[in-house]
Design brief:
mainly beta, 15-stranded mixed beta sheet, single chain
C-alpha cells in the first residue's frame, strides 16, 4: 500500500506532517450500519539545528513559524486526530479531523487537517473510490477512481481534472492505509500497496519486522513492527506497530530527512472493543 507525503515549518508544512502519517481510524467490520470514533495523539520531535543547516545550504529563508517552533526542545504533543468511521454493509465512509494544540493553534490561526474517504469494504480491506484532503488554508484536493484512471482535482470534481494516471485494481489512500489487516492475518512477508494522497499515486512496500511487548495504556500489548522501504526519491522512514490480537496500529513513526529535521509519532489513546 502506498504511504504518501507539515505545520512544523510553515502554515501548510505542519498540516502536511499530519497527513504524512496518514494512519487509519481503527474499527471492527460489522455487517450492520454503525459509526465508530477513534482518537490519536500526535507528537513531533524537532531538530532545529538540522533544519537551519538545510536552510543555509539551500538558501531558503525561514518562516516566522519556524522561529517560534525553534524554541521547542525534545518531543512535544502538537495535535489530536479524531477519525469517525461509518460502516454500512459493504461500504465505508471515513471522516478525519486533525486539530492543533493550544500553542500552535494560536500561532497558525486554528488551521485543521481535514480528510475524507469513501469506498468499498472487501476481503482485501477498505478499497478507496474517492479521497479528499484539505490542509488549513490550502485548496481542497480530490483523488477519484473513474473508469480506468485515477483523476486528481482541486476544489471540485465537477471541474476538469488537474492530473490523471492510468489505474486499475485496488486503491488505498491516506486514511485507509492501515485497514487492510483488520479481520485478516498480518502478512508474514513484505506487502506492496498503491496509495494516493490526493496529489499523486505511489507504490510503497511494507516489510515485516520484529515482534515486541508494546507498552500501552499502563500495561503491555503484543505487537508486530512493519516498516517501509526507502529510496533516494523517498528517504522518509516509516514504521508501524500492529497489535498482534486486533491487527490495529498502536503507534506509527515517520522520520523525515534533513530538509525538515523532524520526527513525527502518532499514538492510539485507547484500544477500542473489537
Amino acid at each position: 500500500m502506498k504511504i504518501t507525503q507539515l505545520m512544523l515549518y510553515g502554515r501548510s508544512t505542519f498540516l502536511a506532517l499530519l497527513s504524512l502519517l496518514a494512519l487509519p481510524a481503527l474499527f471492527c467490520v460489522n455487517a450492520s450500519a454503525q459509526t465508530l470514533q477513534f482518537e490519536y495523539d500526535l507528537k513531533i520531535t524537532a531538530d532545529p539545528a538540522k533544519r537551519a543547516a538545510y536552510l543555509k545550504q539551500s538558501g531558503e529563508a525561514p518562516s516566522p513559524y519556524e522561529q517560534v517552533l525553534s524554541l521547542v526542545k525534545g518531543s512535544m504533543s502538537v495535535a489530536t486526530v479524531v477519525d469517525k468511521v461509518d460502516l454500512r454493509k459493504d461500504q465505508y465512509h471515513i471522516n478525519s479531523t486533525g486539530t492543533l494544540g493550544t500553542v500552535l493553534s494560536t500561532v497558525l490561526a486554528d488551521q485543521k487537517l481535514l480528510r475524507d474517504s469513501v469506498g468499498a469494504i472487501t476481503k482485501e480491506g477498505f478499497v478507496s473510490n474517492t479521497y479528499q484532503e484539505k490542509r488549513g488554508n490550502t485548496e481542497l484536493l480530490i483523488a477519484k477512481v473513474e473508469k480506468s484512471a485515477l483523476n486528481f482535482y482541486k476544489v471540485s470534481s465537477r471541474t476538469p481534472p488537474v492530473g490523471s494516471t492510468p489505474f486499475t485494481g485496488r486503491l488505498y489512500d491516506m486514511l485507509t492505509v492501515g485497514y487492510q489487516f483488520i479481520g485478516r492475518d498480518l502478512p508474514g512477508k513484505s506487502i506492496t500497496l498503491p496509495v494516493t494522497d490526493g496529489r499523486s499515486l505511489k507504490t510503497y512496500t511494507l516489510i515485516r519486522g520484529e515482534p515486541w511487548e508494546f507498552p500501552f495504556d499502563g500495561g503491555k500489548v503484543k505487537a508486530i513492527r512493519y516498516y517501509k522501504t526507502t529510496s533516494k526519491d523517498d528517504p522518509a522512514t516509516f514504521e508501524v506497530w500492529f497489535s498482534e490480537k486486533e491487527h490495529i496500529p498502536l503507534r506509527s513513526v515517520i522520520g523525515l530527512n534533513a530538509q525538515y529535521g523532524a520526527t513525527i509519532q502518532i499514538d492510539l489513546k485507547k484500544i477500542p472493543k473489537m
